[in-house]
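User: Could you check the structure of this?
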Amino acid sequence: MEPRTLKESFSQLEAHSDKAASYFYGRLFAANPRLRALFPPAMTAQRDRLFHALTRIVWSQDNPSELESYLSRLGRDHRKYGVLPEHYPAVGAALIATLRVFAADRWSPEAEESWTAAYRRAAGTMIEAAERDAAEAPPWWAAEVVDHDRRGPDLAVLTLRPDRPLAFLPGQYVTVQTARWPRVWRPYSIANAPRPDGLLRLHVRAVPAGWVSGALVRHTTAGDTVLLGPATGAMTLDPESDRDLLLIAGGTGLAPIKALAEQVVLSDRARRVHLLVGARTERDLYDLPDLRSLAAGAPGPKVVPVLSHSPGFEGMRGELPDVLDRFDGWDDHDVYVCGPTPMVRRTVASLQRLGVPLTRVHHDLLRAEEAPSPDDGVA
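Assistant: Sure, the predicted C-alpha cells are below.
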C-alpha cells in the first residue's frame, strides 16, 4: 500500500508544483536560515530539481535497485554543496509540512507515516553513500585552467589541471563551478581519455542566459581556478564487447564521443570506429583538425563530417538522423550518441528502424533531462 499512498498524495503536490516548491523552501529557510547559504542565488532551477528528484523517488518505489542507485548518486553529489547528515531532518520536516498543505485532499495519518518512513529510508541511503564516498574522494577538486582556446564567439575548449588525481572513464562528465557564480554547478563532459598528466579537456558553448557557460567562455583565462565535482555518467564503453563502434556527435556533444574514440585508439583492442560529426556549416566543425589527427593513428577512427546547412559542401549533407541509412548497416555495432536532445531522440528512433537493438544504443538523455537549467553545458 505504501507506494500507492506516496503516488496518490504526490499527485496532489504536482498539480501545484511552483507554489509547493516556494512553500517548501520558504518553510525550510525560515526554520533553518543557515541552510540558505548552501543553495544558489537564483532558486528557479533549484525548484525544478526538487520536483524532478521527488518524482524519481516516488515513481521508483516499485524498483528498489533503481531507487537505491539514484539516491546514492544524489548523496555523493550533495557533498560538493556542503550537505551534512544533520541537514536531512530539517529537509524532511519541511517536506512533510508542504505535503500536509498541498496534498490535503489525500493526506491522512497513514500517508504521513508512509512519507516519513520513505524519506527516512531515502535520507539514510544518501547519507551512507556520501560517507562511503568521503572515505575515498574529496567533495570537489580545485583545477587550474592551463589553456583557454576560444574557437568561436560562443565556444571555447578549456584544458584543466586538477589539484589531485580525478578518476574518470571516457564518456563521463564532471560538474563545474566558477568563482563568478558560487554554488552554481553545471555538468560538462570530459573530452579526452585519461592521460598520464591528469589533464582534462572540456568543450563549452555559451548559451543564452547561461551563467556558468558564459563565464567559462567569456570571462575565464589561463591561470584561473574552477572547482570540479566527481566524474559520473553511464555512457561508457562496454568492457565485455568487441563489436565495432558507431559514434554520433552533434555540436559540443562531440566531447564525450571524442573521449570514447581516444579510448579505442589508445587500447590494444582492434575495433573499427565510425565517427559521424554533425554541424550546420564548416565553420561549426570546431574540432576537426584534432579529429583528423586522431584518425591518423592506427587504428584511427573514420571521421565523417555531416553538414546540414551547407549546400555547396562536397561531403555528406543532411541531418544526422537522416544519413544513417546511407551506410551499409549498423545492426552489428555498439552505438553512442550525444548532442542536442531532439537530435539524440531522432537518431535513436532512426537506429531502431534500421534494426539496431536498443540495448546496443547508448546515450545520456536522462542526464540532459535532469539538467537544472538551459546552462547545462550539453550540446
